[in-house]
Design goal:
There is one protein chain. This protein is about 55% helix and about 10% strand. By secondary structure, the protein is an alpha/beta fold. The strands form two sheets. Strands 2-1-3-4-5 form a five-stranded parallel sheet, sandwiched between helices. A five-stranded mixed sheet has the order 7-8-6-9-10, with helices on both faces. α9 packs across α11. The longest helix has about 50 residues. The N and C termini lie far apart (about 95 Å). About 30% of the residues are buried.
Length: about 500
């Protein structure tokens, strides 16, 4: 739809011009003005694509009105309408950028031909503006992606042996800055995936209310790093301002993303690019200190650097990762590995040599435990050691899934098989080795799997089964303690009495 303004002090001229235009060009909207002053006001309000302007009008004439309109709207196309065919008029209108004019009285062809030419030009200009808008939008998107990759490279890839100086970062990163990390976890029981792009758009928009300059990195393992650059005003109360912005982002996001649990960790301020990796690790450590979802934690509030230096290797987390992988607990692998890797990064500080050494030790332990389990799983340990954390995590989940399938083949769970065998043979002097052989696992691995899955050791479970059966027999009052002892699998009545007393107290 094109907008056309007709300006003439003669009503009959305006009506005649309107009829000719609408008959030939139905896709136009037309407004009218009866003098130069009204034309200027109408042009501001109506924003026409084309103006038919009469030259000779009382008050502000057509030429003066064109000058004023062109100042406000340089792109508007003007066709002058005049009854005077003089060079002076032509010269004046050419000065203000008018290229077309028609003489009164005009034929239909004399009106429609220049208008058709002008509308074609208007359409070309609109297409050009549209292309420029798309180009600018694509440029902004591309710039955002580049910035995202740079931030990710700065904070994460540098952790894998790439020196920050090799990344050819822009000088404008060399400012007082800190890193915050937004963690998004699916709520328990939620099936649908997190819309990462929508979440990142929300973070991008929300942080704009608090900070003048900030850059989002790429999402990795449910975490989005954000590099915040501080103005002089923002430097004064970094902790207070960071916690306030983080908590507000969480609170608002809680209602917008009902299937997601958000938490934020915040690192300290540094003014050197090389040290921003430390701020990133501090943000991860602050996240690990969060005891519940929807928490916003600042690094300095929770830890002294000595707490996670070389003296505190995360042995417990390492053990937990190995247990969840080798026992086929697929759902827990990613979470435990993420915690382990964060703690490992803090332990290694910025030493890639130590990181590679510890990952190598981890994979040696994993290979050994898988071999002991009797499960056939192969992976290239040396190649995997050099992969980013997300690739290692995915591989561990894959290994765990394979083990899980092995243990649940034909829908028969190893733990269920073991318990069934114990329930059927508790009267005999059964051993851990005997049950392990029944479920086709090594004794050492079966012991670990049983304890991990049943939350108690093999001997504790066997004892509980035997004592429960003994209680049933005691209630019947048909057998002596000695007879009951032999009936539930014990050979020594005195030992049986001590076990029963430890479990339930004295015989009643």
């Amino acid at each position: 739809m094109y907008r056309i303004l007709i300006v003439d002090d003669e009503s009959i001229e305006r009506k005649g011009l309107r009829k000719v235009i609408t008959d030939e060009f139905p896709n136009v909207t037309i407004e009218e003005a009866d003098n130069g002053r009204t034309a200027i006001l109408k042009a501001e309000e109506f924003r026409p694509d084309v103006i038919f302007m009469d030259i000779k009008m009382p008050g502000i004439d057509g030429i003066e009105a064109c000058r004023e309109i062109k100042k406000l709207h340089p792109s508007v196309h003007i066709i002058m309408v005049t009854a005077f065919d003089t060079f002076e008029y032509a010269r004046q209108v050419m000065k203000i950028g008018v290229r077309d004019y028609i003489l009164k009285p005009s034929t239909k062809e004399e009106i429609t031909t220049p208008l058709r030419k002008v509308l074609t030009e208007v359409e070309r200009e609109k297409e050009k503006r549209k292309e420029e808008i798309i180009l600018k939008d694509n440029y902004r998107r591309a710039l955002s992606i580049v910035q995202s990759k740079v931030i990710t490279a700065m904070l994460m890839e540098a952790s894998y042996g790439q020196h920050l100086g090799d990344l050819q970062l822009e000088q404008n990163f060399q400012r007082d800055s800190f890193v915050l990390v937004v963690e998004a976890k699916k709520k328990q029981g939620v099936v649908e995936r997190i819309n990462v792009q929508e979440l990142m758009s929300y973070i991008q928009a929300e942080l704009g209310h608090f900070y003048h300059q900030y850059f989002l990195g790429e999402e990795n393992m449910g975490r989005i790093p954000v590099l915040v650059q501080l103005t002089d005003r923002e430097k004064n109360k970094v902790r207070e301002y960071a916690l306030k912005s983080g908590q507000e982002l969480i609170n608002k996001g809680r209602s917008l993303f009902s299937n997601v649990e958000l938490s934020i960790g915040i690192g300290r301020v540094y003014n050197e690019v090389e040290k921003l990796v430390q701020s990133y690790h501090e943000a991860l450590f602050a996240l690990s200190m969060a005891r519940s979802a929807y928490s916003c934690k600042y690094y300095n509030d929770h830890v002294d650097k000595a707490e996670h230096t070389m003296s505190s290797y995360p042995y417990k987390l390492e053990k937990k990762v190995l247990e969840t992988v080798t026992s086929g607990q697929t759902g827990d692998v990613a979470s435990y590995f993420q915690q382990y890797f964060d703690a490992l990064m803090l332990f290694c500080e910025k030493s890639t040599d130590i990181l590679e050494e510890k990952l190598s030790e981890f994979f040696i332990l994993l290979s050994r435990q898988i071999a002991e389990s009797g499960v056939s799983v192969s992976f290239d340990r040396h190649q995997l050691e050099m992969q980013p954390a997300s690739s290692i995590q995915n591989k561990l989940v894959e290994i765990s899934q394979h083990i899980h399938k092995m243990y649940h083949s034909q829908n028969k769970d190893v733990l269920v098989m073991a318990k069934e065998y114990i329930d059927q043979h508790y009267k005999k002097a059964i051993t851990l080795e005997e049950v392990a052989d029944e479920v086709k696992l090594s004794p050492q691995y079966f012991s670990k799997i049983f304890k991990s899955r049943a939350n108690c050791s093999f001997i504790d479970y066997l004892t509980e089964i035997r004592v429960e059966k003994a209680k049933e027999l005691i209630r019947l009052q048909e057998s002596s303690v000695k007879e009951i002892c032999y009936e539930v699998g014990y050979k020594d009545p005195n030992y049986f009495s001590r076990v029963f007393k430890n479990q339930y107290g004295l015989f009643s």
